[in-house]
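Re: [ENG-882] Designed sequences occasionally contain unexpected residues at chain ends

Forwarding the minimal case from QA. Structure tokens:
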């Protein structure tokens, strides 16, 4: 059993959920994903970042990727012309994977890849960026609301903050239990869990006249260059886990001096129910005022 799983099993209520030892091994999953990345997926990720930010270029702008995972979105920022890219992750595997991916696909570009958390005081205190990006990360930090505020503090006046967070549904409590179990489970149990989940997805597609094979082929182009099977592993194991409603997000961001540019909120009944998972709602805000004093 992995060390982090032994720790969680022995002291499930004492573990610090902001510490990497209490987390699902996200970095190993993204290392596997990055190993097969090629041009089309990187193009999809670049196009997805362009569409999300609503701009054609990041030229003359600084870019921070919080929770860089595989490094594909730090690479996308480079391809959009960002003059300065910083990538953070708490998982050493993700940091190493990001460095290797950038070395392969962006040789000669200086990117600051750091083993660091959004909770690290020196990161928040001494840096600010034109664009801060954190897709599907802050809800896995162990303190989502604090992480959201700390990430927002890294956006300079007039800058953009683009992020994605799990939608709150009535199934969230059940999914939190499942994710804690999956984090601690052995590989055989995990395989059974993935197989069961995928069989339910396939059945749903069959009943609604959709092709699972086509869905797999089209997934990267519709999902920022990502891979469905790696995303399923990430979803089932994604602990720590928190979720939030669009209204809650808007309240927090307005309090911090941000205005909404755009959001892509899931409205289909399956996502709203959370039966197969809620997925992420996407948000892009612009800082229009200074951070309120005392905000953390």
């Amino acid at each position: 059993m992995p060390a982090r799983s032994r720790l969680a099993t022995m002291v499930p209520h004492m573990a610090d959920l902001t510490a990497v030892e209490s987390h699902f091994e996200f970095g190993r999953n993204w290392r596997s994903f990055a190993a097969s990345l090629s041009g089309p997926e990187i193009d999809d990720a670049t196009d997805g970042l362009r569409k999300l930010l609503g701009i054609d270029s990041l030229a003359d702008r600084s870019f921070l990727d919080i929770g860089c995972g595989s490094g594909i979105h730090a690479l996308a920022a480079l391809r959009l012309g960002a003059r300065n890219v910083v990538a953070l992750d708490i998982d050493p595997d993700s940091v190493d994977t990001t460095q290797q991916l950038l070395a392969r696909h962006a040789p000669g570009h200086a990117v600051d890849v750091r083993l660091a958390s959004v909770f690290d005081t020196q990161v928040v205190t001494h840096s600010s960026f034109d664009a801060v990006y954190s897709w599907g990360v802050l809800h896995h930090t162990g303190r989502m609301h604090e992480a959201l505020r700390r990430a927002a503090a890294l956006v300079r006046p007039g800058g953009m903050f683009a992020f994605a967070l799990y939608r709150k549904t009535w199934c969230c409590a059940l999914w939190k239990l499942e994710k804690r179990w999956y984090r601690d489970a052995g590989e055989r149990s995990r395989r059974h869990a993935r197989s069961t989940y995928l069989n339910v997805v396939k059945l749903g597609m069959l009943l609604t006249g959709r092709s699972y094979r086509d869905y797999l082929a089209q997934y990267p182009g519709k999902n920022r260059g990502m891979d469905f099977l790696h995303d399923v592993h990430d979803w089932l194991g994604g602990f720590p886990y928190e979720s939030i409603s669009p209204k809650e997000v808007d309240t927090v961001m307005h309090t911090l001096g941000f205005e909404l540019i755009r959001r892509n909120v899931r409205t289909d009944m399956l996502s709203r129910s959370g039966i197969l998972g809620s997925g992420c709602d996407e948000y892009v805000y612009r800082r229009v005022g200074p951070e309120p004093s005392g905000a953390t």
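QA comment: On inspection the terminal residues look reasonable. The domain at 1-296 is CATH 3.40.50.150 (Rossmann fold). Proposing we downgrade this to a documentation issue.
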